[in-house]
Every structure is written in C-alpha cells, then in structure tokens.
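Schema walk-through. Below, the input block comes first and the output block second. Nothing else is stored per chain. Lengths vary across the set, and this one has 177 residues.
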Amino acid sequence: MHSAVWEHYEKDLVDVDGELKAVCKYCHMKLVTKSGTSSLRSHIANACPAIDSAIRKGFQASMIKQSIDKNFVFDAQLCRERMIDFIIHAEIAFLKFEDPYLQPWIDSMQPAFKVKGRQTIRNDCWKKYEEMKKVFLKVQLTNLYYFLRVQMTNLYFLPFFLQTVCEDNRGHHNLTA
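--- output ---
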C-alpha cells in the first residue's frame, strides 16, 4: 500500500546520476525517496512553489494525526461499565456476547479486556438498571416534594385569594387576583 503522497508525484521514478528520484507533478522537482516519503510529504506540504493552495491545504489536513494521550492507562472495570452503558442504550441482545468474532475484535484494540459471558453481561445490566431506578426514584421524590411545597403554599393563600371577590360599580361580583 502506497502513501497518499504518491498521488502528487509521477508514476515512474527517474534515474538521476544512478539514484532513483520521484518527480513532483506540479513543479517537476526531483526528490530522493530512499529513506521513505518524509521528503516527499514535506515538499508537497510546505515547499512546492507550483502547487495550488487548496491542494496544499487538503494535503496538510490529511497529515494531521490525532494526538494520543501519553498518560492513558487502560482500566478494565471502567471499560466494562462503559460497555454496559452502551449495551443498555443500544439495546444489544446478550446473546451477541457469545459471538466468536467479538473477542478477537476487542483483542485488536485492547488485549487486556476480556468479554464476559452473556449471563455476566445480563447481571451487570440488571445491576445498572437497579442503580438507575434508585436515582430515578430519588429525583421523582425530590420533584414531588417541591411540587407539594408549592401546592401547600398555594393552599395557604387560597382564603386570601377568595376574599378578593369584590363588587364593581354595576353590582357584579368579580374575582381578582
């Protein structure tokens, strides 16, 4: 597989004084390739005087790599908890965790993480459900408490509100707030 930088160079290398060189498609400069493609990338990204700025910017953007957090430490328990969150959210069937292709896929990303069997996954999901239910009930009880406080306050003012019935100058009774 070739680096994407090769699309900016002629297909065939040329011999210059016994050394094979790549030819830039834009300015026709000949560059040495014996130590990889770094000089080719640098030429397209920064030095070629004939390249269109949009092409240069697109190439530069393709060279940007996401930085990897050097302080990252894999935490199997945290990974398992996030997996359970995903399973619940995506409604994944527990049987999927016995698929023979799952563990090799996970091994390709993090060999230290071992997928548990479907019963363990089910138990983890049930535990998470129970935790979520407790939080939900606590929030609901808090909301109910504040609702009742407001209603009790409103009941306290009800007699005063009803006393505001007054008679206007035509003899009609109006309720005013």
